[in-house]
């Protein structure tokens, strides 16, 4: 019995020493586990569904155009220049830029025009549908053909326009696309058009929309 009491006293003393000496506790039971708070996954910042770049910065610059083209016009579009349907669809801002190339010796006159329109996001699908129908509508004897084009932006289409009987055989290529709440139409027309050049210009224009 005395031996049992003695053993109990020794155990109590040992435990008491452990309470004030963490080193002893770790020696007997091992180092306590290190607590790490659960990792919180970084939440990506959602992309703005509407364009955040000022409309003037979306316009094509001279370095986007072949060197033999000169700037003809660069301007905001006035509210009164836009038709009633565009107003009804919520158009509220636009921009236009025009470049020309001319060579009197070869009788070459070719132009590139970019027209930008900004609409409410909820209207942009209808805007594209209407502009696409207008682009494909054959009027005044023109022939219009949809041509293969890489998808740019959210929706896009490219059209080749000719006028049978034109003595100068002029051709017009027009690319229509939307991205976010922006609708753009980039057109090249004249006596010496280049579809591949227009394609690269349109891709650059779409990349500017952020």
What does this molecule look like?
By secondary structure, the protein is α+β, with helices and mostly antiparallel strands. It has a single domain, classed as PknH-like extracellular domain (Protein Transport Mog1p, Chain A). Helices cover 28% and strands 29% of the residues. It contains 5 helices and 7 strands; from the N terminus they run H-H-E-H-E-E-H-E-E-E-E-H. A 7-stranded antiparallel β-sheet has the order 1-2-3-7-6-5-4, sandwiched between helices. A hairpin with a 7-residue loop joins strand 4 and strand 5. The longest helix has 19 residues. The chain is globular and about 70 Å long. The N and C termini lie far apart (86 Å). 22% of the residues are buried.
């Amino acid at each position: 019995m005395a031996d049992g009491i003695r053993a109990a006293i020794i155990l109590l003393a040992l435990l008491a020493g452990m309470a004030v000496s963490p080193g002893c506790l770790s020696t007997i039971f091992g180092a306590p586990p290190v607590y790490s708070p659960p990792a919180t996954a970084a939440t990506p910042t959602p992309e703005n569904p509407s364009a955040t770049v000022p409309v003037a910065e979306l316009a094509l610059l001279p370095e986007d155009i072949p060197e033999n083209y000169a700037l003809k016009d660069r301007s905001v579009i006035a509210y009164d220049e836009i038709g009633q349907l565009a107003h009804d669809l919520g158009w509220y801002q636009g921009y236009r830029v025009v470049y020309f190339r001319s060579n009197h010796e070869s009788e070459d006159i070719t132009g590139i025009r970019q027209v930008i329109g900004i609409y409410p996001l909820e209207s942009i699908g209808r805007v594209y549908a209407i502009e696409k129908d207008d682009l494909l509508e054959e009027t005044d004897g023109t022939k219009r053909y949809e041509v293969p084009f890489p998808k740019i932006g959210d929706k896009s289409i490219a059209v080749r326009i000719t006028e049978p009987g034109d003595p100068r055989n002029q051709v017009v290529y027009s690319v229509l696309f939307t991205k976010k709440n922006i609708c753009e139409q980039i057109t090249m027309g004249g006596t010496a058009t280049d579809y591949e050049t227009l394609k690269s210009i349109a891709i650059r224009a779409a990349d500017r929309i952020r």
